[in-house]
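Hello forum,

I keep getting stuck at the same step: I have a sequence, I want structure tokens, and every attempt I make locally crashes halfway through. Rather than fight my setup again tonight, could one of you with a working pipeline run this one for me? It's a single chain of 76 residues.
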Amino acid sequence: MRRRLSSWAFLLIALMAIGLMVGRWLWNPSDLPPPTSFRAWWWESRELDVAVQVGLVFAGALGIAALMPPEAKGAE
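Reply #2:
Ran it on my machine without issues. Output:
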């Protein structure tokens, strides 16, 4: 079991390293906008925040629905 876990960890680290190298190769620094603070960027790009909140509400609703007992057949 430990060997299998370490092989998955190695694969994950290798994929992250490859993604970082490809990203740096394809994304030139001249393509980047001028640096702004994280707070200003987060306030200007609210789409990500709203999408995360919708996902969390949906996951919470599914979790509550999973905890509820099933309905009895024929009961009204």
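The two ends are 50 Å apart (CA to CA). If your local run keeps crashing, start a new thread with the error log.
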